[in-house]
Write a structure and sequence with these properties.
Elements lengths: L2 E4 L3 H12 L8 E4 L3 H10 L3 E3 L11 E4 L6 H8 L8 E4 L6 H8 L4 E5 L9 E7 L5 H12 L2 E5 L4 H11 L1 H18 L4 H21 L4 H8 L5 H11 L2 H22 L1
Parallel strand pairs: 1-2, 1-4, 2-3, 4-5, 5-6, 7-8
Antiparallel strand pairs: 6-7
Helix pairs in contact: 6-11, 7-8
Length: 268
Amino acid sequence: MKILIIGGGNMGKTYAKSFLNAHIVTPDNLLILEKSEEKAQDLSKQNIGTVFGSPGGYIKKADLIVLAVKPQDVALLFEGLEPYIDKQQVFLSIMAGINIATIYKYLGAPKIIRAMPNLPAQIGKGMTVFTSSEDVTRIELVTVQNLLNATGKTLYVEAESAIDSATAISGSGPAYVFYFMKSMIDTAIEMGFKQSEAELMCFQTFSGAVDLLNKHNYSCEEWIKMVASRGGTTEAALETFKETKVQQDIRQGMYAAFERAVELSELG
């Protein structure tokens, strides 16, 4: 199986290394198209595949083409790719806001899988939600899911509209977590801890809480009750969260992300 990754940025490089580390593909069967001369030279030094600086006949040799460029670059990208496309090739797009219909309109290739990964894919802890066009066969879909599993966990959805929802949840989600962590760290420093001490407490608290959730069959609500004894310190904090409507703010923020994802899809 030959894989072509178009775009040698963070996500393109993440996918290349994940596929190689999982022994899904060898460097000889991994192609990378990166138009930036500086990035292309850097990729060549890493020996993670054959690097090209412009589209060419080699594109037809790929069984799977991963579209990992910024959404604003798609018009130029599609124009350069179209002459070299084989209609039976499978396309995996991780471009935010570019829907399946748009890709098909420009490339005329019917086998398209659209995925929304997130940042932890860089360390194999990602969450990727994906869907596909009707022309993608069951075998092709399973093959691509195995590739995506190399970067973390995956969830297939029937409706493409669910990708916009996933963008607001798992796609943008790491930033919500970092935002809450930063708030805790800043407050700990105000309370007299050093930066390094505040970070240690916060990072270990989040890591431990997630591990507890993963290793025991209790819901978040049940864990909250275990920590928050009646009349205690945790209950005091949670009551303040209710009064200041923290949960409502989080919900509104996620819906704002969802609405923006829909707008971007319509623009695409």
